[in-house]
Write a structure and sequence with these properties.
The chain is an alpha/beta fold. It has 10 helices and 11 strands. Helix 2 (54-64) packs parallel to helix 3 (92-104) and helix 5 (129-144) crosses helix 7 (165-185).
Amino acid sequence: AYCTLPTSQQVILPQKCHPNDRSLELSSREKLRQQGHAPLKDVPVHAWAPYWVLSDAAASVGAHGSALTSVSPFWYQLDDTGTVVPTPHLVESQSQAMTTASSAAHLELIPTVSDTLPAGALAGILADTERSQRLVDALSSIANANAGVDLDFEQFAFADDSSTWETTRPLWISFLSRLSTSVHAKGRLLTVTAPPMYDTNRTADSGAWVYDYAAMEPLVDQIRVMAYDYSVTKPGPIAPLVWTRKVASAAASLVKDPTKIVLGVPLYGRNWGADGDYKFLHFEACYYKAIDFA
């Protein structure tokens, strides 16, 4: 069972622990963070900032920026034509607050660009030389205006049929190669957010092998592995420890330089809802029932 300490450090506590238990001593690393010191150099910390909580994220960066290395606000996405556009409902004042807070904390600002296109759309763009080059130019422009750019192109894994991956994979790597050359020529960073990949066998058990970690490695500065959303459609753990360890170990084994692997971890929960109206369901009952199931 997990309890969150006042410092937001999550540690494994004994069964039947109470969420208000303050008895555990903080680690030396956590004490440093409480005192406002920057994280140790061997453990860089990067943060995503979703657009729907951007003002809260900017405030958090302002208060705790010394604990971070970079921040990636969700500022852009691809529209139906494959053009990079600002994320809908983005508030300019909130974006400016994030820029100001990041600059004050001396953080690398690496905006995230998301693929929200229908199945097969981005793969089609990559197969078109002219359209894919326009995308390279647009992403390079974003990178040049910041410390770099982060690609959150998940639709290959979660919308496209896996039967298309054999065709998409080389198109993806070719696209990344051109983008890498352009971004790095200006001294900027290129990061890719990708679902877990477990091996190079290209089977149903290999994970999202369409992204090809080994081929991406020399082209990007970071591969941000999505070690979260283990359970999505049905109630369950978001990032069970055994699975997270498997994801991290597999990712490191697939590249020559494991320092390029960044483990993406969840700092959120999910409201799974209920199938009925249950009155008087007390927090304590829910809490200990969750421990029993765990």
